[in-house]
Write a structure and sequence with these properties.
This protein is an alpha+beta fold. 36% of the residues lie in helices and 21% in strands. It is built from 7 helices and 9 strands. The strands form 3 sheets. It has a 5-stranded antiparallel beta sheet, sandwiched between helices. Strands 6-9 form a two-stranded antiparallel ribbon.
Length: 260
């Protein structure tokens, strides 16, 4: 993290358009960094007499467009997901406003104060994931459903373990469901970063939750799988394959980082 390469005046203009408040004043900004080529800033903002933290995410041409929607489509999908999914029992931060200017889109998002994961957080996250996978497209607004249907599902970071089982079903897929995007708060979990929401393999998400973080014990993995199954069935063959793919990906990356 560090000082962002944008002026306070520019950040203020984005936030005023997002919030619809000309009395918005930016007190400080910090570059949150590492977010698929988008500019992501954690801002302390004064609006009227209130001071509040807000995350500003700006999509511009050149960002890592994994869903192939372009800046406007990706940002609009993200904003709609933040608005609609909590009503379907998938907790997210709140979207505070959107501003579109040409092919540049800014989202103002509720800043979440995360705390260390208490015991059982990953199992709780698995239950939330299973609820996401149960949501039918008809439960979404027409606009969000159309954007999800147009989105390319995330597969690119998986290895290529042999004997891929057939895909039995497609569901809503978060696309990057692991600890970085799962915040524990005093009020429960909040799931972040919905840029990759698409129709895809639900076991991609569960495999990622199980394999993306190093050091997960077999006991905790079993508890996560059991928690998921409390909400919906899983495809055991497909999950084994996804987990094998993730392990292969991790091992390949470790060899590359070690220069092997």
């Amino acid at each position: 993290m560090g000082t962002p390469l944008v002026s306070t005046d520019e950040v203020t203009a984005w936030l005023r358009r997002c919030l619809g408040r000309d009395d918005t004043r930016v007190i400080s900004t910090e570059d949150a960094g590492g977010h698929s080529g988008c500019l992501v800033l954690r801002c302390t903002v004064e609006v009227g007499e209130s001071v509040t933290p807000i995350v500003l995410k700006v999509y511009r041409t050149g960002f890592d467009d994994y869903s192939a929607l372009g800046p406007v489509g990706a940002a609009r999908k993200h904003a709609l997901a933040l608005s609609e999914l909590p009503t379907l029992r998938v907790p997210t931060p709140r979207c505070l406003g959107v501003s579109v200017r040409g092919d540049e889109v800014a989202l103002a998002i509720e800043a979440i104060h995360a705390k260390p994961w208490p015991d059982g957080t990953r199992a709780d996250a698995a239950r939330i994931l299973a609820r996401l996978h149960c949501i039918q497209m008809r439960k979404l607004s027409d606009e969000l459903a159309a954007l999800v249907a147009r989105s390319t599902p995330n597969r690119g970071r998986v290895g290529s373990a042999p004997e891929e089982p057939p895909l039995q079903e497609q569901t809503l897929q978060h696309g990057d469901y692991f600890s970085v995007n799962i915040f524990a708060t005093a009020d429960g979990i909040r799931v972040l970063d919905w840029d990759l929401l698409a129709l895809g393999d639900p076991m991609w998400d569960l495999g990622h939750l199980l394999e993306a973080d190093r050091g997960l014990s077999e006991a905790e993995a079993a508890a996560v799988i059991q928690a998921y199954q409390q909400v919906r069935p899983l495809d055991e063959a497909r999950l084994r394959w996804q987990r094998a793919c993730w392990r292969q990906f991790r091992e390949t990356r470790q060899r590359t980082e070690a220069g092997g």
